[in-house]
Specification:
The structure is a homodimer.
Chain A: E1 12-15, H1 19-30, E2 35-38, H2 42-61, H3 68-73, E3 75-77, H4 81-85, E4 90-93, H5 99-110, E5 118-121, E6 141-146, E7 155-160, H6 166-178, E8 182-185, H7 195-211, H8 217-232, H9 237-242, H10 248-267, H11 275-288, H12 294-317
Parallel strand pairs in A: 1-2, 1-4, 2-3, 4-5, 5-6, 7-8
Antiparallel strand pairs in A: 6-7
Chain lengths: ~325, ~325
C-alpha cells in the first residue's frame, strides 16, 4: 500500500477527547488528514477548540508547524458517535482507561463501522482482548498506545490481540509512519506492553536505591537527566551498548552481562512500595516542587519537549 | 569553602590518560584549571596533543567552547608520576579497570601525596575499598565515576569507601560543581554504583523482551530513543512520574505501583544471557550496523551528544 493510500486518507475519527484524544487529533491534522472528534461530554467538547488553538500556537512558536489555522480547520467536532465514524476507515479510541467503559463503546461501534474499518485503542495498560472479544470488529481491533503528548513524542506501541489480523497491524503501522509517528511492533499482548515495562523496571530500581538510603530522588533523577538520558534521547539501549565496547554488543555483553545479572539477582523477592516509602519519596518531591507548582512545571516540561522535538528534527534534517 | 578556593585552584593531576583521562583533562582545562597528565605509556602520551586538539576543535565547532588553544595550553604532560602530582591537591585516577593495577598505583601515590591531597578514581565498577585499604591516603580516596565523554555528559558518581572522610566527599562535590560537572552523591559502596544499576535493570528487561520474541532490538531502541528518552534527557524518572499524575508522585505510585510490581514479579529467577541470545542480539545489531561501521557511528554519536549539550545549555540559559 502506498503512503497516499493509507487508512487515514479519507479522514480519521477520534473517540474520547481528553488529553490523549486531543493530542491524536493534532497528530493527524498536522499530517494533513481530516479529523472528526467525538466525546460523550458536551462540556468537554466545548473546551476543545480553545485547547486545540493553544497547542497549535505553542507548536508554531517552536517552529514545529506552519499554518496553525489550516491545521485546526481540519478538526471538526461531531454530536454523535455515528456521525464521527461514518465512512471512516480508522478510529483512534481514547476513552477512559476502564474495561467496562471501553467494552460498552466497542459494542456500540460494532454495529456502526464499515467492514474495513480498524480501531486502534490508546489503552496504556489494558490489553485490547479484555474489551474486544467476540465482536464482528474484533479482528480489526488492536492497541495503538501513544506517549503523551503524541505530537511531541513519536513512539506508538502496536499490540495485537490473538484475534487481530496481521494485515490490520501492517495497515496501522503504515498509517502511523505516514503521519510522522514511530510505530513499535509488539508481537503479542503482555502486561504493561513494552514502554511501561522498561520504565517500570528502572523506577523499581531507583525506588529501591532511594529506600536503602544510597541516593536522594534528586540525585537519582540527575543520573538519568544529566547522564544516561542524554544518549537515550537519540539512541536506544541496544545501540548505546553496541557503541560502548570495541567489539560491539557481543563484546559488551561478555564484559558486563555478569554485573547486570548480579544486580538483579541481589534484589531478591520484589516487594510493594510501602506507604512509608511513598510518603518519603513524596516529601522529597514536594520539597523540590510544591503541589501547586505541578501545573506550571508540566507546561515547562511540554515546552522543553517541544524544544527537544525541534532540536531532533534539525539534527536529522542535517544528516 | 568558596568556589574560588576549591581543590583544583592550584591545578589537578590526571593519572592514566586513556579516553577517560583525556576527557577529564578537557573538563578541568575548560574550567580554567591547570592540568598535569601522566601515563606510564610514552607511546600513548605522544598521541595525546593531537587527540586533545581534535576534541577541542570539535567542541568549538558546536559552540561549546571558545579559545581552544588557550584551553589546550593549560594541559601539560609529565614524564614521571612524581612530577604530575607534586603540590597538587586533587588527582583524578583513570588507570586500567583492574584491582592489581589500581592498587599498585595507590601504593605508589601513598608516599608521594601531600597531607591534604584527594584522589578520585574513575572506576566504573570496582569500589575504591578494593584498592585503597590501609594506606595513609585511604581517608582521602573515593570513586568519582564519570560517563564518557565527561566533557559532554556531566554526571559524576561520588562513592566513598567506609573510611573516606565526609569532608573529602564534600570537597570533591564542590570541585565537580566548580568545573561544570553534576556530582551525584552515593551514600556508600554498592555493586555497579547507581548509573550502571539503572542501566542494567533496563537492559535486562529489554533483553528479556527480545528473547521472548515480543520486540526487535530496533523497536526496543525506538521505545527509548523516540519515547521515554526524550523526557529523560532533561528530567529524571522521579520528576517524570511526578508530572504524570494530577496528585504528583504519590498519586502516580498508588495508580501504577501495582503494575510495576507485577512486572518484576513475573520475571522470576534471573538467568544469564545465553550464548545463543547474545548471538541473536548481535546478529540484529550487525544487520543494522556492520562491525566496521562502529567507529564512524561512535563519532556520529559524539557529534549528536555535542549537539544535545549545546541544546541543553541554550535551553537552560533562556530559563
Amino acid at each position: 500500500m502506498s503512503r497516499t493510500e493509507h487508512l487515514g486518507s479519507t479522514g480519521v475519527a477520534i473517540v474520547g477527547a481528553g488529553l490523549v484524544g486531543l493530542g491524536w487529533a493534532i497528530v493527524f491534522a498536522r499530517a494533513g488528514l481530516k479529523v472528526r472528534v467525538f466525546d460523550r461530554s458536551k462540556e468537554l467538547v466545548a473546551t476543545l477548540p480553545a485547547k486545540l488553538e493553544q497547542s497549535l500556537s505553542d507548536l508554531e512558536s517552536f517552529g514545529l508547524i506552519e499554518a496553525p489555522q489550516e491545521i485546526g480547520s481540519r478538526v471538526s467536532y461531531c454530536d454523535t458517535l455515528e456521525e464521527a465514524v461514518d465512512g471512516i476507515r480508522y478510529v483512534q479510541e481514547s476513552v477512559l482507561e476502564r474495561v467496562d467503559v471501553k467494552r460498552a463503546l466497542y459494542e456500540q461501534l460494532d454495529g456502526m463501522l464499515g467492514q474495513n474499518t480498524i480501531v486502534g485503542s490508546s489503552s496504556s495498560g489494558i490489553p485490547s482482548s479484555d474489551f474486544t472479544e467476540g465482536l464482528s470488529i474484533s479482528p480489526r481491533c488492536l492497541v495503538a498506545h501513544p506517549v503523551n503528548p503524541p505530537y511531541l513524542v513519536p513512539v506508538v506501541e502496536l499490540v495485537p490481540a490473538s484475534w487481530t489480523l496481521p494485515e490490520v497491524v501492517d495497515q496501522v503501522d503504515d498509517l502511523m509512519h505516514a503521519v510522522g509517528q514511530h510505530p513499535v511492533r509488539v508481537a503479542r499482548e503482555l502486561r504493561g506492553f513494552v514502554l511501561n515495562r522498561l520504565q517500570g523496571v528502572l523506577l523499581r530500581e531507583a525506588w529501591a536505591l532511594f529506600e536503602e538510603g544510597y541516593c536522594s530522588t534528586a540525585d537519582l533523577d540527575a543520573t538519568i537527566s544529566k547522564g544516561l538520558g542524554l544518549r537515550w534521547s537519540f539512541i536506544g539501549p541496544f545501540e548505546t551498548i553496541d557503541l560502548n565496547a570495541p567489539g560491539g554488543v557481543r563484546d559488551y555483553a561478555n564484559r558486563l552481562g555478569g554485573l547486570y545479572l548480579d544486580i538483579v539477582r541481589e534484589r531478591g523477592e520484589p516487594q510493594p512500595w510501602s506507604e512509608e516509602l511513598i510518603a518519603r519519596v513524596d516529601a522529597e518531591r514536594r520539597d523540590a516542587l510544591p503541589l501547586d507548582g505541578l501545573q506550571d512545571r508540566t507546561e515547562w516540561r511540554d515546552r522543553r519537549l517541544m524544544a527537544v522535538a525541534a532540536h531532533k528534527r534539525d539534527m536529522e534534517a542535517s544528516e
